[in-house]
Specification:
Two copies of one chain form a homodimer. Chain A has a domain at 8-96: Phosphoribosyl-AMP cyclohydrolase (Ubiquitin-like (UB roll)), CATH 3.10.20.810. Chain A is an alpha+beta fold and 139 residues long. Chain A has helices at 8-11, 41-50, 127-131; strands spanning 21-27, 33-39, 54-57, 62-65, 74-81, 88-94, 110-113, 116-119. The first copy, chain A, has a four-stranded mixed β-sheet, with helices on one face. The two termini of chain A are 24 Å apart. The interface between A and B is large, with 38 and 38 residues. Strand 7 of chain A pairs antiparallel with strand 5 (74-81) of chain B.
Chain lengths: 139, 139
């Protein structure tokens, strides 16, 4: 179901030429930055309706209710927009404590150390134990 | 000075079709999400060299050393890359405690309340007292 037309707060967002904005998810309790994904108008509308993060998957080219396969939904407590109105930030409770498809708490687990990206966070759960044999999670 | 070619850690970033990635800045002490801006290869290289955030300004179409006019530089303590290697996150100390050109602590000051974006953070310093009569800061 597309978002209804003429919703002022949605129209106020400065969608890019593809109709998207980047959306940061931050853990409302720990403050940890979990994910950066993309939303179109409908995804942001559905995020408010469901109080769970819904994104536009650029790889799948469809709406993506985060956690639809893993169960690792993001329960949305607050929704912010930046000064230029072209970036969204969600404060969320991360179901299962795992936001990343690699089984880590956060997607931002590569840290630059001595000119190398090192893996700075542990895998909490093996992706195979999250997704089974379905490899489509990897995109 | 362009970033030297063949720097492996820069080559590992998945730059978009415009050669850019979104870059989040988070206050390393408070955990507050301050800004979302964009970096090209040179901006990320210079960010590491200077230990201060350098972005690619899409409105100015040039490199933008954050704080170059305001003095509100972002001192970069850690640099992260996400699982897909197409988004950067910086942990920073925000000089002056003001990241936003509106004089607020964070750019993410519009909060959605009852289907309206409300201004949820105070202006700490009047932009005119930061930038004087130079209005180019507004973009």
């Amino acid at each position: 179901m597309p978002a209804p037309a003429n919703i002022v707060w949605l129209d106020e967002v400065n969608w890019n030429s593809e109709g998207l904005v980047p959306a940061i998810a931050q853990d409302i309790n720990s403050g940890k930055v979990l994910t950066l994904a993309w939303m179109d108008r409908e995804a942001l509308y559905l995020t408010l309706q469901k109080r769970q993060a819904v994104y536009w998957s650029r790889s799948k080219q469809r709406l993506w209710h985060k956690g639809e396969k893993s169960g690792h939904t993001q329960l949305v407590k607050e929704i912010y927009l930046d000064c230029d109105k072209d970036a969204v930030m969600l404060k969320v409770i991360q179901t299962g404590g795992i936001a990343c498809h690699t089984g880590r708490q956060s997607c931002f687990f590569h840290r630059l150390e001595n000119n190398c990206w090192i893996e700075a966070e542990p895998v909490i759960k093996n992706p195979k134990d999250i997704y089974g044999n379905d490899s489509s999670w990897s995109k």
